[in-house]
Amino acid sequence: MIIDSHEHLILPIEMQIKKLEEAGVDKAILFTTTPHPEKANTMQEFKNEMSVLFKVLSGEKNHKNDMKRMENNINDLMKVLKKYPDKFYGFGPVPLGLNLDETISWIEKYIVSKNLKGVGEFTPGNDEQVKQLEIIFQALENYNYLPIWIHTFYPVTLNGINILMEFTKKYPKVSVIFGHIGGYNWMNVIDFVKETPNAYLDLSASFSSIVVKMAIAEVPNKCLYSSDVPYGEPLLNKQMIEYLCKDEKVRKNILGGNILKLLKENI
Fold first, then answer.
1. Per residue in 243-260, pLDDT tens?
2. Average pLDDT score over the chain
3. How large is the C-alpha radius of gyration of the chain?
C-alpha cells in the first residue's frame, strides 16, 4: 500500500482525492490547515492566504482564538475522514501553552476519542515555541502509539532543531517525525535520526534531490514518503523516490511500509 504520510486538507476534497488517484497513491494522512493556498492563482492571492499563517508563526495570536481555530479545523478534518475512511488517516493539532493536565485532556478529547493517528503539525515560529513542545512530549509518554510531527525547515533554526533532538532523546517512548528533513540543517538531522531509535524523517519539501538521496542511503527504514499538499504534489514526490531508490523492497517501505509500521497499522 502506498501512503502519502503528510498532506494538508485542501478544498474541494474531491481535488485532493483526484491528486491521489493520479499519483497512484492508496491513502494519505491528512493534517488540518489554516491557510488554503490551493485557492490562489496569483502571487497576491497566495500572500493573502498565507498572511494568517505568518501571524501565527510570529506569535501574533490570541490563545482562546487559536484553540477555537484548532477545534474548527479538527471538525473539518473529521467530516472528511468520516466520508472517505478508505482514503485518509488523520493527525490532529494540540495547542501550545497549556499545562500538562490540560494538554492530556485535549489529546483525550480531540485526538484519542476521534481515533486520529498522531499529533501535529507543529510549526514553531521561534526557539521559545520549540521549548514549549516539551509539555507535548510529556503528555505523549502516556500515548506512545501517537507520533508527533514537527516542522523543522525555516523558521525553525539549528538551535531549535537541537532542542527538539534533546526532547527526542529525553522522551524515548515518543516517536518524532522531523518534518522536511531539517531544511538546510538536513545533514545534522539525518545523522541524528540514524543514531536515535524513535526519530523519523519526512521527505517532503526538500530543496534538493541529493538530500532525499542521502536520507534514503543512510536511514531507509526511517524515511517517510510525503508531499505536503498543497505545497507539493503527490505524483512528483513519489516519482523522485522511485527514481532515487532502485531497491524494490526499500522503495515499498519508504512509500508506505515505514509509516504503516510506525502507526502500527496492518498492511
1. 999 999 999 999 999 999
2. 92
3. 17
> Do 254 and 225 contact (CB within 8 A), yes or no?
yes
pTM of the model: 0.93
Q: Is the sign of the CA dihedral 7, 23, 205, 136 positive or negative? A: positive
Q: How far apart are CA 145 and CA 219, in angstroms?
A: 21
Instruction: For residue 247, give the DSSP letter.
Output: -
d(CA 113, CA 67) in angstroms, rounded, equals 18
Query: Which 3 state secondary structure label does DSSP give 68?
Result: helix
How far is the C-alpha of 204 from the C-alpha of 153, rounded, in Å? 10
Residue 240's Cβ-count burial label (10 Å; 0-12, 13-18, 19+) is: middle
Question: 146 in helix, strand or coil?
Answer: coil
CA–CA distance, 91 with 253 (Å, rounded to integer): 20
Would you state the cell numbers that stand for residue 178, as one nine-digit string?
522531523
